[in-house]
Amino acid sequence: MLISEIIQKVKSECSGKWKDYVIEESTTRDKILYGNPNQECTGIVVTLFASVDVIKRAKELGANFIIVHEALFWNHGDHTDWLVDNETYKQKVELLGDICVWRNHDYIHSGIMIDGQYVDGIFTGLMHELGWEKYLTKELKYPREYTIDEKPVKELCDELMDKLHLNGIKCAGDMNGTCKKIMFPMHLIGQIDNDVTKYVEENDIDTLICMEATDFTTSEYIRDSAMLGRNKRILAVGHFNVEEPGMKWFAEHMKEYIDVNIEFVRSGDAYSFVKNVH
Ligand SMILES: [Fe+2]
Ligand SMILES: [Fe+2]
Question: Which of these, 181, 217, 243, 262, could form a disulfide with 193 (CB 3.0-4.6 Å)?
């Protein structure tokens, strides 16, 4: 099967619509980021981010096609004209060789058909990895809000570190209380943060498990809330760590309709933590 045929098949298995927005070829992020798709596929690696280690693993597996969720060359739109003299860029390109890389971002978020309805593949994969299906309290299409069996914060942190393969979690707010009403907000980078703060307040959310968490918005509100004795905290698990299980789930789903060897390769937690013990 040609790589280009695999891409078409994956797209056809997705909704292609994102709320009111219909994915268009001219504007979608989901482009060939590197290489030639008009070649026979020797194997597929599915990952969140095609890091150098992921590319090396693809080569060990004999796979010439990598499907990613994030950009390959470190910027929105994967522009490379500014990188021609960049040593890491040059070495990464050399390592890629004949490998083709395609981004599946808009399509997987637009929805994969499960039990008669399209669901966001990334957040559905996260829900399955956590085993939280029975706790889901909001819509199935974008599963991002849960009411779990109440447990101490540290117990929830242990569960997240274990299931999401984390080196640690950056936390703010009350670390001695209990967690029950949980929300995964999207990127807290200054755009939707006031809406999230309002939502937390109005819906009595006690725990945010977030992708990015900037210091100057919702994190401040959570911190002040905790200082006033309110049971609230933010667990900044990280953007890629939240989304990685979605690509693992997608790799399994792909096996139902693509007859080529498919391996999920974890790009893993980028962060390590140094704790001040003094
Ligand atoms: Fe992302
Ligand atoms: Fe995403």
Answer: 217
